[in-house]
Amino acid sequence: MFIKQLFKAGQPKEEIPPVTVVSGLPRSGTSLMMMMLEATGMPPLTDQFRSADTDNPRGYYEFERVKKLRQGDCDWLPQAQGKVVKVISALLEYLPSDRAYKVLFMQRALPEILASQRKMLVNRGENPEKIDDEEMARAFKSHLAHVTEWIGQQKNLATYFVDYNRLLSNPQPEIHQINQFLGGGLDESKMLAAIDPSLYRQRK
């Protein structure tokens, strides 16, 4: 079941604008959201370290140093001011608490996420059977329950949970909610135009 609510625990610090973050499980639509925000003129914080491929033909929109948050590498955060950065859900807890964040958390049907991951393994020449879908689904559900509870306890975090499947099937209402959450200044028509239905390849 998707969690469809908006957490606003506390107010962002006025002296430092909140950092905009796109998060979620791998293969949950985070790259699509980064692409949609980029289309409105919001620059993504990326380093082009991971190039586009068959699985993400329009790019991954990643910043390699984000992966070192767990080790305490957060000196790059000032670079994220006025931009949007992708941080997978497993690393959200390592964002420094002395800053404010606005998080767009992508939610996608788990069978689609699992199917997408399997396809990625095939494309990379790896054995897709090395991942047991039931075990992985249990792990993902447990992780999502944990991170959602954690989000609700943070005073410096405002989060909107984006329904990926609804975004693809009926985008306009979801786009409007995203725009309102981020302050209402985005061009919704450009966000809509950035959605390429042909890239929605794992449907359940």
What does this 3D model show about the protein?
The chain has helices at residues 30-39, 110-123, 133-152, 164-169, 171-181, 188-193; strands spanning 6-8, 19-24, 84-86, 101-107, 157-163. The protein has 6 helices and 5 strands, in the order ββαββααβααα. The protein has a 5-stranded mixed sheet. It is globular, with a radius of gyration of 16 Å. It has a single domain, classed as Rossmann fold.
The count of strands amounts to: 5
- Summarize the helix and strand pattern as letters: EEHEEHHEHHH
How many domains would you count in the coordinates?
A: 1
CATH architecture classification name? 3-Layer(aba) Sandwich
Which residues sit in consecutive blocks of at least 5 with pLDDT less than 50? none
What do the pLDDT scores average to? 85
**Widest sheet: strand ordering:** 1-5-4-2-3
The assigned structural class equals: alpha/beta
CATH homologous superfamily classification: P-loop containing nucleotide triphosphate hydrolases
Report on the biggest sheet.
Answer: 5 strands, mixed
N-to-C CA distance = 15 Å
CATH topology: Rossmann fold
**Judging from the principal axes of the Cα atoms, what is the shape?**
globular
* Count of alpha/pi helices: 6
Strand content: 5-15%
